[in-house]
Design goal:
The chain has about 90 residues and is α+β, with helices and mostly antiparallel strands. The chain has helices at about 60-80, 80-85, and strands at about 5, 10, 20-25, 30-35, 45-50.
Length: about 90
């Protein structure tokens, strides 16, 4: 599945790592996760939202869902990193 960068700045986690939030979609769902500069997933979870029908997943709905998921993920990563950031 092809990942795309969410239109937002990369940001630094409490541990100093720089991350981007990427998204991917199918015909009726959107998913986001955070990735480091090497492309490794650093968010423990993938945030996901879906609609009942592909007809309900137009460009405006897709953009709104991706933005909402990205906001929630960035908030979780920065406010509670012990729970949401993968440690190696």
């Amino acid at each position: 599945m092809t990942r795309h960068k969410v239109k937002r700045n990369e940001f630094r986690l409490a541990n100093g790592a720089m991350v981007n939030i990427d998204y991917w979609t199918d015909d009726k769902s959107a998913s986001v996760a955070a990735f480091d500069m090497d492309g490794n997933q650093v968010s423990r979870a993938v945030f996901h939202a879906s609609v009942a029908s592909p007809a309900d997943f137009g460009p405006d709905v897709q953009k709104a869902l991706v933005d909402s998921l990205a906001n929630a993920l960035e908030y979780a990563l920065t406010r509670n990193p012990d729970l949401h950031v993968v440690t190696v």
